[in-house]
Design a protein that fits this description.
This protein has nine helices and seven strands, in the order H-H-H-H-E-H-H-E-E-H-E-E-E-H-E-H. The protein has two domains: 5-90, no CATH class; 100-261, Alpha-Beta Plaits, CATH 3.30.70. The longest helix has 38 residues, at 53-90. It is α+β, with helices and mostly antiparallel strands and 264 residues long.
Length: 264
């Protein structure tokens, strides 16, 4: 990509109509500009205007109108395509939630602005058993149901994303520990999956690791602390939330396999 590409991108975004009214205004403005340029060139070359003003206007509309309209249409479609691609790059295709990359970008921006809060790493318990027993279609349906449950528990100021496999993350900005516990209480209730391939009463539970942000802490370290708390929640019997504490560093054993890749 050349250095000029960002400027051309900004120019095309500016030219693209944002609405029908904006499109009409831009069409009128571009046609008026073409008309004035045409008048200026005719007067500059001939020293006078040979055509009546209304006739020149008709010629301008007939010759330039289709080109301007087609250009505005193309710019509009290009902007729609860019928007769709940008959204696709940020979204997990299966659940419709923000993907890992976009979630981490948002988390990094919020922490960088000085905002504090709690990070929850959420993992579906015994998910591999559902996949192995009822098939991948049932597993996909289960992930969608979990995503819907998590999304319905989010507040407007919270960020949610699927960060890998059966693992999700939620950032609760400017929240107290009591607020975190209330939200977690909703998430820890068994979720009825209702998948076609399994029994009607098939349920799944979630394990949660929670960590409070620290000033100046890197996102990777923040994620790691929440992961450690999730590890202990799993080790303690699943279907529960554990808050990260300082003494966890001596309780969590060395494990070459990252917590997010552990089954179940």
């Amino acid at each position: 990509m050349t250095q000029r590409s960002p400027y051309l991108l900004r120019l095309s975004r500016f030219l693209a109509p944002k609405s029908s009214v904006d499109g009409f205004i831009k069409f009128a403005a571009y046609m008026a500009t073409i008309h004035l340029i045409s008048l200026g060139m005719e007067f500059g070359l001939a020293g006078q205007l040979h055509m009546a003003h209304w006739a020149r206007l008709v010629v301008t509309l007939a010759s330039g109108g289709p080109f301007v309209a087609a250009s505005l249409f193309v710019f509009s479609k290009m902007e729609q395509l860019r928007t769709a691609l940008r959204e696709q790059a940020r979204t997990d295709a299966l659940t419709g939630l923000p993907n890992r990359r976009f979630f981490l970008e948002t988390l990094r921006d919020r922490l960088g602005s000085g905002e504090g809060g709690y990070l929850l790493i959420i993992d579906a318990d015994h998910f591999k058993t559902i996949n192995d027993t009822y098939g991948h279609a049932a597993g996909d349906a289960a992930l969608k149901t979990i995503a819907e449950q998590l999304n319905s528990s989010c507040r407007g100021k919270d960020n949610l994303g699927r960060i890998g496999g059966e693992e999700f993350a939620m950032f609760l900005g400017r929240s107290t520990e009591r607020e975190v516990d209330i939200i977690a209480g909703r998430l820890l209730k068994p979720i009825v999956l209702g998948v076609d391939e399994g029994p009607e009463n098939l349920t799944i539970t979630l394990s949660i690791g929670a960590a409070q942000s620290r000033s100046g802490e890197r996102v990777s370290a923040f994620m790691h602390r929440a992961d450690e708390a999730l590890y202990l929640a799993k080790s303690a019997g699943r279907a529960r939330m554990m808050h990260w504490e300082h003494h966890f560093e001596t309780l969590v054993p060395t494990d070459p396999v990252p917590p997010r890749r552990r089954a179940g």
